[in-house]
Design goal:
The structure holds two protein chains of two kinds. By secondary structure, chain A is mostly helical. Chain A has helices at 2-24, 31-55, 88-105, 116-135, 139-148, 150-160, 165-193, 201-207, 214-231, 240-247, 250-275, 277-304, 308-329, 332-363, 374-377, 379-392, 399-412, 420-449, 455-458, 468-486, 489-506, and strands spanning 65-73, 78-84. Chain A has one domain (2-188, 199-204, 215-230, 244-506). In chain A, α2 (31-55) packs antiparallel against α3, α3 (88-105) packs antiparallel against α20 (468-486) and α11 (250-275) runs antiparallel to α14 (332-363). Chain B has helices at 2-8, 14-36, 45-62, 79-106, 110-129, 133-151, 158-189, 194-201, 222-238, 247-254, 257-282, 287-309, 315-334, 342-375, 388-391, 393-407, 414-427, 431-457, 470-488, 491-499, and strands at residues 68-70, 75-77. Chain B is globular and about 70 Å long. The chains are: A mainly alpha, B mainly alpha.
Chain lengths: 507, 502
Amino acid sequence: MEWVDGWALSLATFLPIAGAMVLIFVPPAQEKVIKSVATLFAFLALVAGIVVLARFDFGAAGTLQMQVDASWISQINARYHIGIDGISLPLLELSLLVSFLCVIYSWWHIPSPGNPKAFFALILLLETGMTGTFAALDLILFFIFFELVLVPMYFMIGIWGGPRREYAAVKFFLYTLFGSIFMLLGFLALYFNSGPHTFDMLALREQGLGGASDLFQNLVFLGLFLGFAIKVPMWPFHTWLPDAHTEAPTVGSVLLAAVMLKLGTYGFVRIALPILPDAAVTFAPAIGVLAVIAIIYGSLCCFAQTDLKRMIAFSSVGHMGFVMLGIATLTDIGINGAVFGMVAHGLITGMLFFLAGSMHERYHTREIAALGGMLKQIPRFGSLLTFTAIASLGLPGLAGFWGEMLALLGSYQPHPELSATLFRFLMVGGGIGTVLTAGYFLWMLQRVNLGHVPEKFAGSAGVVDVVPLEWYAWVPLLMLILAAGVFPRMVLGVTDGAVQALIGAIG
Amino acid sequence: MELAQLAVQPGVDLHALAPDIVLALAACVVLVADLFLPRESKWIAMPLSAAGLLGTLAAVVSLIGERRLTLDGSFEIDTFALVFKGLFCVIGLIVLAMSLSYFRDGRYYQGEYYFLMLCSLLGGVVMASARDLITLFIAIELISIPAIIMTALRKADVKSNESALKFFLFSVLSSAVMLFGMSLVYGIAGSTNLADIRAALSGGGPSSVRLVQLLEVAPDDPIVVLAVFFVVVGFAFKISAVPFHFWAPDTYEGAPSPVAAFLSTASKIGGFVGLLVLMFKAFPDVADNWRPAFAVLATLTMTVGNLIALRQRHIIRLLAYSGIAQSGYVLVTLALIDPDRPGANAQALRSAIIYLAIYAVMDLGAFAAAVSFARKGGSYFISDYSGLWRRSPVLATLMAGFLLSLAGTPPMAGAWAKLFVFLATINSGVIWLAVVMGINAVIAAWYYLAVVKRMFLDAPEVEEPIEVPYILRAAMSVAALALLAAFIYPPIITSLAERSIL
């Protein structure tokens, strides 16, 4: 089984891109073949992911397992170093699962202007970029995967998006590129500070910073912060997100929300905190404050939205605020909560965007005010919306609850070097945020699900209840939302070991 | 008989000169063959030239791993020289692929064109090995003068004439300035050999080949500064660095497009090779005098090039200005030279080589795509690129690949080109230049993306599909695949650069 351990992770990462390559040679008219090939490769990647899960030693979740460390660019000592631990495993599985479900969903949902070949190829490219980012243990490798998602997502929003797609696509691209260049500068600074020079995350963590000045550490942290914070996105770098989410096609929104936003928060946990622990302590209060601003601001913006998809996008800003608050506490509780929050947000918000997309196909509008009485007209669909929205607002028993609860709990007693007073204020702020979140989601449900069916939709043949294909794509997400809520150990049991190791590094 | 005599003469290493000789012979063959070819078959000069370039490439390959010095130390074969000789051959081959249908359909002076192009490439091939001021000067003139005539080949077109005249005047002016600087250098060092010049400038005792006893100068003597300044300004014209760039966009626009592609790659890289050789071989010990000038030049070149490129509506002008901005990144590496830090110098040189090699392929690819589009059913105006994706998915994808590579985003090798320059800059501790580069990279992404956006996101005004000639399609595909391969496994290029030491 040595062979499996060595290859499973690489296969999970590169099978999707191999599928995209195969797609190039399929004639565009052969739609069925295109869909089958894409599904096959996404499925194979998922199988590889399940093998990783099966071979993962949960007793040693704190150590990096299934490492592959091969020579790549020997001239600068950048290596093909991948591996996985309790923090990256759930996210990796999440990205493989969600990508596969997106491929399934796209069988009958290729948005206008069509061209399934390019569309599936882009999904697969994105999948490789996202999966690779979670597996990479070398800064250059990480950077390449991190950047790899940029171009496919640009095209996905720009070609298949809504009316303002061009603006949204370009804004997304330039914003992210801007951040990642400063992140790259930070990586290079770490490289030259290390001795012997290395891009290896583990080696950098072990070496320490070798007495680098506070200024150096803070500047490098700032560079990384810019790159990651734009990706998360944290307030005030979030403005690309509502545009990108609103304009992207359903699958694009799902992938963005479910996985891509986590690349930023994951970067904080995997790179910024362990390698720059002192700077992390310096920056933590600022990150905490920004996170709480994001929570409150995101929630308030949700109240003002008339477009359902845009509302969900702003709710993401708030939810990612909780994740960042958890990270800012620098405690095991907080960071466990943050990782849990990432997974939960991926499942729930991914699901919400699926629902929003399918609603748009049925009603041809996403205006909350134009909808109503969905529970009467299409009861199953309405129930799913209720279920997912309630999960998102953090009802205990569903996945959304644990991430927020742990982040707030962590803020009560933050890292000893942080000001407990400040973080208790932040906890109160976050608490207010949860109330606001409940408020706007319930208000949305009231307007969309309850009340009378608007006249123009009353007899509309297009408004059908959930179709089988949608069930296939959604059931796994729905079950996981419930399972993670009832049995949080499913995620926390995996993450805790790795988080403890991380906290040990911060000291 | 005489040739055999020459071969045994000590000091002339014919094998070392083989690539240059093969290319020169090929140029002559093309010129003579043109006399005998009937009017309809003049295009045969193109495969002949391609064969000549392949022969040159074979000669280059036969020298791999060699390190030779011949012609009294004025001509050197090392990895640096071979990498650039090979690069010039590759550039030549791609430009030939672009030229065939352009010149055959336009019935321009095909035989002369291919002859001139080979001559200009010969200049580049010589330049890569030149280790002497006079050889350097001859090489750069050999690059420029045929290029001027190539620019003017569309005789009936006023724009072509204007652009050639502009190019000619700037070229002559810059040559004069450069020569003046070189004469000052000779006056100080008493030798035209670069190694001797370096020894003389660092005050390392009397040089063995010094012909006449000249004034003794300190490294920071104003005359040294002035001499280097004039040489650098001369080269700055050739590589169209801001503020010496005014000729380039007009010339590119007026020239036949394959010639514009040639100018923005072969001619520009030729200038850079000369500059790298001079700065790393002859002047590194007085780097304190000129390093700041390169930092300023690089900043201006990147920023001004990018800002003006934002406003361009003509694809060739856009590529011209973007090419100017791209040169700025290479100039950055020259602003990093520090005599006290050999490690950092090697890093800087390496990044310059990697940048130039990748730049050549991606820039030529973009030009080739522009030529393919303009040939039938398209134009040079960016507004006409709308919806190209529907009209020719292959062409649009290739063009997008090249533009994204120029912008420096994965999955194309352009990302590594930028990354290695960043690496060298951070290594030298010049953080502010790295930040300037970072901001410029974002500005540049904007205008490259604008073209990509037009091709993919906008609706086409005409649905008529675009037909791309077979040979152009093959050339572009090879270039794109090379960029992709170098992205996935960068040692293809970095290992060559690693071994290139000056």
